[in-house]
Design a protein that fits this description.
Helix content: 25-40%
Shape: globular
Number of strands: 7
Strand content: 15-25%
Oligomer: single chain
Largest sheet: 7 strands, mixed
Number of helices: 8
Structural class: alpha+beta
Order of helices and strands: HHEEHHHHHHEEEEE
């Protein structure tokens, strides 16, 4: 009888043990915050991490290998006050900008080119960006940058080669411990076969697309905006 009870207890303990402990990845055991290099800090977001876990992705590794190079590019753009490069990097708000200009749609390649050219022309003429206030970003003295994971999409095999394509978003905050901090939402795309990377700035928080381009939507609900 005692042997039977012992077996039952062992079975109970086995079933009751948290399965999450068995599947924790090495990166999940890491610190909540760490310095990737002087001036660049990575901070975990444990709720968002569940999206990465679902697709067997390591958000810290992606930040280090794929987002950190973008941070270097962004620092260079700001140092050189390269507005044209910012326009080139920005994707996801051209449609709203085109509508603001009047009748242009970024889904048409000719319109996309016209939107970018008009956007740059206004900045060169006035020194102001009427759509995203990028002049405020370009006059910032960068002291520190914080990287935080924001979302991950399901990896997708390419239809034209044997690559698997990955798509993740990160929040990039410049001078996060100051009153006048700047936060960008950056999408990074890469694959498992090459070193190629694509970067897109899809939001500049408190500037565009909200409130400058889409004032009728709550900022926190923008991702739910109907197509």
């Amino acid at each position: 009888m005692k042997q039977y009870l012992t077996i039952l207890i062992l079975i109970f303990l086995s079933c009751d043990s948290p399965k999450s402990q068995e599947t924790l990845q090495d990166w999940q055991l890491g610190p909540d915050e760490e310095i990737l290099e002087p001036g660049i800090t990575y901070s975990r977001s444990k709720d968002i991490e569940q999206e990465f876990v679902k697709y067997n992705l390591d958000p810290r590794d992606i930040a280090n290998k794929h987002v950190r190079p973008f941070v270097g590019l962004l620092k260079k753009v700001i140092k050189e006050k390269d507005f044209d490069k910012l326009v080139y990097l920005t994707l996801g708000v051209q449609s709203e900008i085109g509508k603001k200009m009047g009748g242009l749609e970024s889904i048409i390649s000719d319109d996309l080119h016209q939107i970018d050219e008009n956007w740059k022309k206004i900045f060169r003429k006035t020194g102001k960006d009427p759509y995203c206030n990028y002049e405020q970003l370009l006059t910032t003295a960068v002291k520190e940058i914080l990287i935080v994971p924001y979302s991950a999409k399901k990896p997708r095999p390419s239809s034209i080669n044997e690559r698997t394509n990955f798509n993740a978003e990160y929040l990039i905050t410049i001078n996060p411990n100051t009153i006048n901090f700047h936060t960008l939402l950056v999408m990074v795309r890469f694959d498992d076969q090459t070193d190629e990377k694509w970067y897109y700035v899809t939001r500049y928080f408190n500037h565009c697309p909200i409130p400058n381009l889409v004032p009728d939507y709550n900022e926190h609900d923008y991702h739910l905006k109907p197509e």
